[in-house]
Amino acid sequence: MTGAGPARDRLLQTVVEQLAGQGIADRSLRALATATGTSHRMLIYHFGSREGLLTEVVAAVEAGQQAALAALTADPAAGPREVVDRFWVTVSAGARRYGPLFFELSAQAMQGRAHAARLRETLVAPWIAPLGALLERGGLAPAAARTRARLVIGAARGLLHDALVTGEFTEADAAMADLTALALPP
Length: 186
Hints:
This protein has helices at 6-22, 29-36, 40-47, 50-73, 80-110, 118-122, 125-137, 142-166, 169-183. By secondary structure, it is mainly α. 25% of the residues are buried. Pfam families: TetR_N. InterPro entries: Homeodomain-like_sf, HTH-type_TetR-like_transc_reg, HTH_TetR. It comes from Pseudonocardia kongjuensis. Residues 5-65 form the HTH tetR-type domain.
């Protein structure tokens, strides 16, 4: 049985921060416990297993980004370009810390690792609906809005990957600005 509550939430955030800085690789539950100042028994109590912990890390990272997008799309007066430009600023700033963890977990989802399986369901589909709705609000037909949403998601993640590998965030920012000007209604 896994524990719940504020202590669990704080511990999860500590683990996310540790993994953001050091990566997952093949780190054991004991190594994660030591690095986060807890015991492996507490991690097992709260998360059930290493895979359970990593599943929760995936959920926490995705939930944070989805909450940021939801907050930005909640303003009915904001147009698609404004929302995506503001979201890009938020995501690219966070990517400097959490991007390597995000891409490591994404690669593990591609490899079929159990703890990252949830990403197969949450990495793209939940993003298309809010972005698609935003683009429909900007005047695109529903099918075109969904396709354009997928384009923006894929391009943004590609630019983040590029910037994380090369360190060229200014160039990635410029490319994203060009993309939003070309692909999104005002």
